[in-house]
Amino acid sequence: MKNGSHRATMGDEPTVEAFMRHLQVCVEEARTIPDKQEREHRLLQLESALQEAIIYKNRIEELQRHGIDPIRLVEAEPTLGQPPAPKKVEALMSGHNHCKFCKSVLEPDLPFCPACGAEQ
Fold first, then answer.
1. Average pLDDT, the chain
2. How do the domains of the chain map onto residue ranges?
3. Torsion of Cα atoms, 6 then 20 then 71 then 14, to 10°
4. What secondary structure does DSSP assign to the chain, as a single string?
């Protein structure tokens, strides 16, 4: 690193632990919110986020202990039959374009699929 500069690499991506530290700082800041109702609402949001982060971190560690790559993407098995009926949102959006790769509903203003990232 030259002159104190730091260039981010893939290994420097934020971690779950960094996110949890961020949430803990936000909790401390939220405790200073003057309005009681707003303070309690924000604290509930942050505590819920912290709980989910802990659950996620523990689940990832458990999968790794069992030799399972928790981030590996898998292809759907062709023998599974028809996909389930569309969700209400998808039903309301029927008639819209679908991704040619993953068949997700495309947002009209995006040049890529929000589900798989493929350019359209």
1. 78
2. 15-65, 85-120
3. -10
4. --TT-----GGGS--HHHHHHHHHHHHHHHTT-SSHHHHHHHHHHHHHHHHHHHHHHHHHHHHHHTT--TT---PPPGGG-SPPPPPHHHHHTTTS-B-TTT-PBPPTT-SB-TTT--B-
In 3D space, the residue among 78, 87, 82 whose CA is nearest the CA of residue 115 turns out to be: 87
- Name the percent of the chain lying above pLDDT 90: 32
- Measure the CA–CA gap between 67 and 79, rounded to whole angstroms: 26
pLDDT tens digit sequence for 53-100 = 999 999 888 888 888 887 776 676 666 666 666 665 555 555 557 778
Q: Whole-angstrom Cα distance, residue 74 to residue 79?
A: 14
Question: What Rg value do the Cα atoms of the chain yield, rounded?
Answer: 21
Q: Indicate the pTM of the whole model.
A: 0.49
Q: Residue 27: phi, psi to the nearest 5? A: -60, -45
- Around Cβ 33, how many Cβ atoms within 10 Å? 14
